[in-house]
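#lab-general

N.A. 3:47 PM
ok so I finally got the sequence cleaned up, no stray characters, all 67 residues accounted for. can someone with queue access submit it? mine expired

B.Y. 3:52 PM
send it over

N.A. 3:53 PM
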Amino acid sequence: MKPIQVELPDKLAAEIEAYVQAGWFGSEAEVIRAAVADFVQRRRLDLLERFMRDDIAWALKLKTAAT
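B.Y. 4:20 PM
back already:
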């Protein structure tokens, strides 16, 4: 695994600690890994769609320039 150091606002850090204290997660690192994985999974389709739109726009621009 690659270690990444981040700074969080105190309120967010306290919420993460509360999840650990409540037993939902084994550590703060586990909470952050789960949150990042969820974010990446949710954004993956948005990013793919953006790349597709960019590719289509590029192809249409080329087609227009060729005519």
